[in-house]
Design goal:
By secondary structure, the protein is of the alpha/beta class. 41% of the residues lie in helices and 23% in strands. The two termini are 37 Å apart. The structure holds 5'-O-[(R)-(carboxyoxy)(hydroxy)phosphoryl]adenosine (KG4) and zinc ion.
Length: 519
C-alpha cells in the first residue's frame, strides 16, 4: 500500500489539525489554515494521503522568485517512513514549476529530525533569527537552498525526488488501525508529582517500559502521620531533576530521541502537581516536543493495560488509593464515565486513619492489612455504609468513627483491644462494600473486564475477594503488580501513549487541575 501527494482541501482540515497538534507545542489554528487555503495565488499546501488517512502535510509561500516553507508535519505513527522527505521533495518540485529560484525556512535548533530532513533535501543552515519562537524565545535556524535551477542542484534534486517517490510508493503502516493505536513506536518521557512520590519513566510504544524511577517522600511525611502539602512540593522540587535524569540514563535515551513528553495534570495536591507540570512545560519549551496531560486516575487504570496485554475496554475499574475511591466505566479507549466515588474519606485514607488509632504508624494500609491476617474479620460488626443504595458512591468516615468508638468503649471498660481483630473486621467492612458495588457496576455496564487500581489494590484480601466474586461470573479480574499499584510514572506514560495517538495535547498555558474529574 502506498501514500500519494495531492493538494490540500478544506475538508482535510480536521485530519490536518490533528497532525499539527500532535506535532507542535504551539499548533496553527483552523482559522490560520483556512486563511492559507483562501490565498491559493501565493500558497501551495500539499497533503500525503493514504488508506489510513492523511499522514502528513506541508505548505509553501511564494514571493516572486523566493519560496518559503511555512509548515510541515508528519503524523506520529507514520514518522520514519519517508513521508516528510516526500513532502519536501514535492514542495521543491512545485516551487521549480512556479519559477521559484531559492527556498528558505526556519526550524527550531532543538528539532534535529527536521534539520536532517532539510539538509538531505539540499538546504543549508545560513544563520539564526533571534527569539523567533515567541512561546520559548528560542532562536530559529534559517536554512535555504542554493539556486534551484543550477545544474548541480537539478541533479541532486532529481535524485532525491526519485528516492522520495519510491519511499512513498512503499509507504505502509503494515498493522491494521486498531493495533496501530496500541502499538506504534513513540518514545515518551512521563513525569508524575501529584502526591508524595516524585516519579519519571520512559516508555516505547505504550508498553515497553525502558525505565521507571520513583523517589518516595514517605519518610518525610511519616512523623506527621500523613502527607503535608508544603513538604511535598518542596521535596518534588528537590528531587525532580535527578529523578528525570536517572529515568533517561537508565533507559539509555537522550532528550533528542523522544517523541513526546507527558505529565500528570490532576487530580492531586495543587502545589505538588505544579512542580511536575512546570518542569514538563520547561522541557517541552526547550525541546519543542509535544506535551500530553494525563489524569492521575486514568494513569492508575492504565497500570492494568501496561501489565496485561489482554486488558482493553470495555471495562469497569475501581480506583482505590490514599486520595481516591472511584468506580469508573471505560466503554472504549479515551472514554470515561465516573459511576460513583467517595463522599468523604478515600479508602487508603481510612486505612491510614484506623492504623493511626491502633498505633501502627504511617502509611497504615500495608501494616494494617498484615495485622488483619492474624485477626477474625467477624469479631466485630462494623457498619457497611451505602452497601444497599442504588448509586455507586462510598462513605468511609462513619466506619472510621465506629472503629474509634469501639476502641474507646473497650478501653473505658478496662478490656484490652485485640488490634488484629479490629484490623480484620475494619478491612472486611471496607471490602464488602467495594466488592458489592464493583459486581453491580460490572453487571449493569455489561462488561467482561474488571480492573483494580491505586495503592489500595496492594491489599491481598481485597484482591482475593474480588477474584472470588468475579470468577464464577466469567469476568477477567486484572490487578497490576505491586510496583504499578502505588504512584509511578510508568502508568502515566502508558495513558499518554493513547492520548498522543489521538492527538490530545496540552499547551504551554496548561494549568494544574487539583480537582480534575475523569469523564
Ligand atoms: O496510589 P497511592 O500510592 O497514592 C495515592 O494516589 O493516594 O496509594 C497510597 C495508599 C495509602 O493510603 C496506603 O495506606 C494504601 O494506599 N495502601 C494500602 C495497602 N498498601 C497501600 N491500603 C490497604 N492495604 C494495603 N495493603
Ligand atoms: Zn495515586
Amino acid at each position: 500500500m502506498s501514500a500519494s501527494i495531492r493538494p490540500m482541501r478544506a475538508d482535510d482540515l480536521p485530519q490536518v489539525l490533528a497532525v499539527e497538534r500532535a506535532s507542535f507545542v504551539q499548533p496553527w489554528s483552523e482559522g490560520l489554515f483556512l486563511d492559507e487555503l483562501a490565498h491559493a495565488d501565493t500558497r501551495t499546501w500539499l497533503v500525503a494521503d493514504s488508506e489510513w488517512g492523511i499522514v502528513g502535510f506541508g505548505g509553501l509561500m511564494q514571493n516572486l522568485t523566493d519560496g518559503h516553507i511555512l509548515d510541515l508535519a508528519v503524523r506520529p505513527d507514520s514518522r520514519g517512513r519517508g513521508v516528510g522527505r516526500a513532502l519536501v521533495s514535492a514542495l521543491i518540485e512545485r516551487a521549480v514549476e512556479l519559477g521559484i529560484h531559492r527556498m528558505t525556512l526556519e526550524v527550531r535548533p532543538s528539532n534535529g529530525v527536521a534539520q536532517r530532513l532539510y539538509e538531505e533535501a539540499g538546504f543549508v543552515s545560513v544563520g539564526r533569527r533571534r527569539g523567533y519562537y515567541e512561546d520559548s524565545d528560542e532562536d530559529a535556524i534559517i536554512m535555504w537552498t542554493g539556486q534551484l535551477s543550477s545544474a548541480e542542484e537539478v541533479g541532486t534534486r532529481e535524485r532525491l525526488a526519485r528516492r522520495a517517490r519510491a519511499s512513498l510508493e512503499a509507504f505502509s503502516l503494515e498493522d491494521p488501525p486498531e493495533e496501530r493505536l496500541a502499538e506504534g513506536d513513540d518514545l515518551i518521557l512521563a513525569v508524575e508529582t501529584s502526591c508524595d512520590e516524585t516519579a519519571a519513566a520512559v516508555m516505547r510504544g505504550g508498553r515497553e517500559l525502558l525505565s521507571s524511577v520513583v523517589a518516595s517522600q514517605v519518610r518525610f511525611h511519616a512523623r506527621f502521620g500523613g502527607v503535608v502539602p508544603e513538604i511535598a512540593s518542596r521535596k518534588h522540587t528537590e528531587a525532580i531533576v535527578a529523578v528525570v535524569s536517572e529515568a533517561l540514563d537508565s533507559a539509555g535515551i537522550d532528550l533528542a530521541d523522544l517523541t513526546a513528553l507527558a505529565v500528570t495534570q490532576g487530580p492531586g495536591l495543587v502545589g505538588a502537581l505544579v512542580v511536575g507540570l512546570a518542569y514538563a512545560k520547561g522541557l517541552a519549551l526547550a525541546t519543542g516536543l509535544p506535551l500530553v496531560g494525563v489524569n492521575h486516575l486514568e494513569g492508575h487504570i492504565f497500570a492494568n493495560v501496561l501489565a496485561d496485554p489482554d486488558v482493553a475496554p470495555p471495562l469497569v475499574a475501581l480506583v482505590v488509593s490514599g486520595g481516591h475511591t472511584s468506580l469508573v466505566h471505560m466503554p472504549s479507549w479515551g472514554v470515561y464515565r465516573t459511576l460513583g466515588s467517595t463522599i468523604d474519606d478515600a479508602a487508603g485514607e481510612a486505612f491510614d486513619k484506623v492504623a493511626k488509632m491502633l498505633g501502627l504508624g504511617y502509611p497504615g494500609g500495608p501494616v494494617l492489612s498484615e495485622l488483619a491476617k492474624k485477626g477474625d474479620p467477624k469479631a466485630i460488626r462494623f457498619p457497611r455504609a451505602l452497601i444497599n443504595t442504588a448509586d455507586y458512591d462510598f462513605s468511609l468516615s462513619g466506619l472510621k468513627t465506629a472503629v474509634l468508638t469501639y476502641i474507646r468503649h473497650e478501653n473505658a471498660a478496662g478490656r484490652e483491644v485485640d488490634a488484629a481483630d479490629v484490623a480484620a473486621s475494619f478491612q472486611a467492612a471496607v471490602i464488602d462494600v467495594q466488592v458489592a458495588k464493583a459486581v453491580r457496576a460490572v453487571r449493569e455496564c455489561g462488561v467482561r473486564t474488571f480492573c483494580l487500581a491505586g495503592g489500595v489494590a496492594a491489599n491481598e484480601a481485597l484482591r482475593d475477594a474480588l477474584t472470588a466474586a468475579f470468577g464464577p461470573l466469567g469476568v477477567l479480574v486484572s490487578v497490576p503488580p505491586l510496583t504499578f499499584c502505588t504512584d509511578n510514572a510508568a502508568m502515566i506514560a502508558a495513558a499518554a501513549h493513547y492520548r498522543l495517538r489521538r492527538g490530545e495535547l496540552i499547551g504551554l498555558d496548561a494549568e494544574a487541575l487539583p480537582n480534575l474529574a475523569l469523564g
